[in-house]
Amino acid sequence: MSVIILGIESSCDDTSAAVIKDGYLLSNIIANQNVHKAYGGVVPELASRAHQQNIIPVVDQAIKTAGIKKEEISAVAFTRGPGLLGSLLVGTSFSKSFALALHIPIVEVNHLQAHILVHFIKQYQSENRLPDFPFLCLLVSGGHTQIVMVKDYLDMEIIGQTIDDAGGEAFDKCAKVIGLPYPGGPGIDQNAQSGNKFAFTFSKPRIKDYDYSFSGLKTSFLYFIRDHIKENQYFIKENMNDLCASIQHSIVEILMQKLILASKTTGIKNIAIAGGVSANSGLRSAVLDASEKYHWNTFIPEFKFTTDNAAMIAITGYYKYLNKDFASQDIAPLARFKY
């Protein structure tokens, strides 16, 4: 009998629902919230209200696109955390109610773990390259930066992480300094295509082992811009592409140095990246270059799986379902949620 999982993702500002059948993706619907752009970041209250408006039509569309009936669903997987508590509460409440009405189990999912398991989503008429265990995954997003040793589908160990700011946050904050809109990562990436990545240099952190730090880099970039604007008020406008290329190169170089170190130390050559920043062209190129140099077997997610989506929640729920790892109806979301 087939296992069909409905996945619900509502950790931040995207409402998403997906259906996976026996590990194969049938649908993945995402409703974005553009209202936050005017505020330069996600406003939690607006996000939770938008989730309330979007979740029913998004789930309905996911089920219809998948070509199934709701009675065929084996379980509902939902993001328990980490994330914005109000947003998580909407997804959790809906998932519990939906499952209760159909008399099916619910499966809690760690959002970060799901980003990593996106590499196990299978698609029809696709090559479906899946990583072998163990592998190292560099998980980079607006809120998290981690190197994770993945020993099995549900057995993961964080061996390195940021001690302050995340890589995605560094992109966003530096973008804000030079006047690019939120989210800043895509804007920096786009401008960097026409810039010289060696035009400017910024201070690099010296953190032991596999841990990261980006606060010093952000400060260095801020002071650099401040000092040059004093000399030339048009400095940013005249050097936008080079600034973007240089800060992107700096962030990617910091990320790659620790990933390369982790691979050399552990001897693991199966390498994956995940999270929103895995869509960055500079990081993708750096991983491919390192793959050739160090003979890695690399796994880079499709762009549609880099941002928050319910397909990654559904695939994680699928493996937890096979393990009979179900949650109770009294479960509550968690803003902070460890592996």
Tell me about this structure.
With 339 residues, the protein is α/β, with parallel strands linked by helices. It has 2 domains: 4-127 and 305-322, Nucleotidyltransferase, domain 5, CATH 3.30.420; 135-303, 2-Layer Sandwich (Nucleotidyltransferase, domain 5). The chain contains 9 helices and 10 strands. The protein has a 5-stranded mixed sheet, sandwiched between helices. α4 (167-177) packs parallel to α6 (215-231), α4 packs antiparallel against α7 (235-266) and α5 (184-192) packs across α7. The protein starts with a strand and ends in a 17-residue tail after the last helix. The mean pLDDT is 94.
Which terms would index this structure?
single chain, 339 residues, alpha/beta, Nucleotidyltransferase, domain 5, 2 domains, five-stranded mixed sheet, 42% helix, globular
